[in-house]
Amino acid sequence: MTKAQARKYGQEALASSGISNAPSESLWLLESVTGETASKLLASQGDELTAEQEKNFRDKIAERISGRPIQYITGKWEFYGREFYTAEGALIPRPETELLVDFALEYLKGRENPVIIDLCAGTGCIGLTLASLIPGSKVYLVEKYDEAFEILAKNARGVKNAVIIKGDILEDIASLGLPECDLLLSNPPYIKSSEIPALQTEVLREPVTALDGGEDGLTFYRALKKIIPSLCRGAAAFECGEDQGGDLMNMFPGSRLLRDCYGNVRVLVEGEDRC
Question: Could you give the number of structural domains in the chain?
């Protein structure tokens, strides 16, 4: 099978299973098998896959058709122009979450050596992106679950201004030894428990612990509200569901809401008037 034939096979197989982005996903899976760039693969005509590569590619196409997210199949995904390791133990980085980074960069502009805390860090895509973009910063990333923490540690390798901490923000936050920060960030679980079973098949492949926000979806926001006075000397910004704006504005009086790249309410900002 040539690489061009492989792209066509993958595209047709994915499209026939109802995957709307079949051409791109076929190409991405072929990239992960060959280690070649998309531009090189698109330019190749008669180049043959090895027998091992062909089997690997067919297996990955079958995995994708079964409903496994492509981010877990490739083992990596892009967030804010940077590549992060991904696996089943952590939430997949999403483009709408980049709004938190946008806000952080604007809020911290001109501030020397800011201290940033990223709670429920998962892959670390939020905090580690900021650590890379603001070299003078010190970023603390907190994650509770073993599998997610392993992924976080892998992504944090070589990021000298990042500190990763294993801990549960619903327990005693003081025991984690976190400093007072200029900006507190989090993409916490915020889906109502009753809504979890109705989620898309792909989303259900992600860890339920990263999705389930309790009976009303607000469990972690209540915890964050308690945490802010002891940890945050500046602003706090949290990702939220598009239908949670009203509840969160009531919970955090004086806060404001930001809309994501799709036009949906996505981030709550609290405490911009501090310091």
Answer: 2
